[in-house]
Amino acid sequence: MSVNFGSHRLVVGAHFGMRDWLAQRITAVLMALFTVVVIAHLILSKGPITYILWSGIFASQWMKVLTFTVIVAMLYHVWVGMRNIFMDYVKPYGVRLVLHTFAMVWLVACGGWAIQVLWRL
Hints:
single chain, elongated, 4 helices, 121 residues
């Protein structure tokens, strides 16, 4: 339901539209560029792709920071998508709250696990 007041329109809702759309696009571009960087590392490396090669790619500090930045971007990308799906398709408020809480806890746990994996190399 909306109400018109002269040239201003009052729209009810969460008002996430443009910000979410832009966040999804920016994080998607960041993840795509990171994928190109990793594939370039693999293509330009010599020899077979082994654990030593993979750990060598992610061993430098700049690559760990870049990887963690991409992981945070991916977690935010997932959160925005899941939140929008829950808001659009899950009508009972209690169920939506449980799903939001589960998704947040799961994503924070995945972020913590990513920190462990990256800085354990």
